[in-house]
Please model this.
Amino acid sequence: MNHSSLARFSLSPALARALTSGTGVVALESTVIAHGLPAPHNLELARECESIVQEQGAAPATIGIIAGHPVIGLDEAQLQEMASRQDVAKVNLSNLAQTLAGQKWGATTVAATLCLAHRAGLQVFATGGIGGVHRGASNSFDISADLTALSRFPVITVCAGAKAILDLPKTMEMLETLGVPVIGYQTDELPAFYSRKSGIKLDIRADDPFQVATLAQTHWELGNTGAILVVAPVPETDQIPADEIAEVIEEALSAADSQGISGKAVTPFLLARIAEKTAGRSLQANLALLKNNARIAAQIAKAMVE
Ligand code: PSU
Ligand code: MN
Model:
């Protein structure tokens, strides 16, 4: 039995061509589809992000694990299953091999998407908000595997900051420790997922995709092996100002605590709770920022191949 074949990924001929012909390719993740958004918004969003990337002249590649098989560029039928199956594992680096070996279905988080995207030669990736240091991490030790993966895989990762449910100052400290540059995209401030502002100033700013490409190339020429984190604020019309959402986040955190929610279930629980308590307003912000990030990532992917 050839164990090494388990990690072999599949790439459609169209994507393979895009990669060799210098068309920009954008990786998209699948945890947001399987665990981050409610149906039917999850599938609609997955399709919309792919269309947005295409409209910008780049090629989308949603990444996921189909019955143990890593797929770079899920097709429509696979996206539909990813959005509706109840047995899709949330996969980071610690359970990626197990998901493949066990022939399970897996939705890739930022961490696992970075790993597979890099293996396939993709350099740009769009997500919603990365995971980070949870509030109360000094007791729970809950720090997202996204952070360590960002320190390891050289992929430009476009997000709207770390999720607002987290401890943002500690998350920024960790990113600095791990040597991950955080680039404000047309902003001098770290965005806070649902909100455009966090009160945390950034040292690095880029105003167009070419500036991001130059920073990334320079970072990698220095021998660094990790990601570049591009943080873009949610569009103005869809944001929920930080002072308005703060109370809702607090309520969701204490609900998670009193219901004993832990581990991988924490983030999906909080996102769903906040959507319920804001009557869908946070969901609207989440969808808007995901689409915005896909568009920016496509522009960066194009700049990278020019
Ligand atoms: N962005 C979103 N919604 C999500 C996620 C990102 O708008 O659900 C997912 C990503 O896959 C990210 C994960 O890696 O949430 C973080 O999970 P955790 O906090 O358990 O590490
Ligand atoms: Mn966690």
Notes: The chain has a mean pLDDT of 97. The chain has 13 helices and eleven strands. Residues 142, 144, 266 surround manganese (II) ion (ligand 2) (CB under 6 Å). Residues 182 and 229 are 5 Å apart (CA to CA).
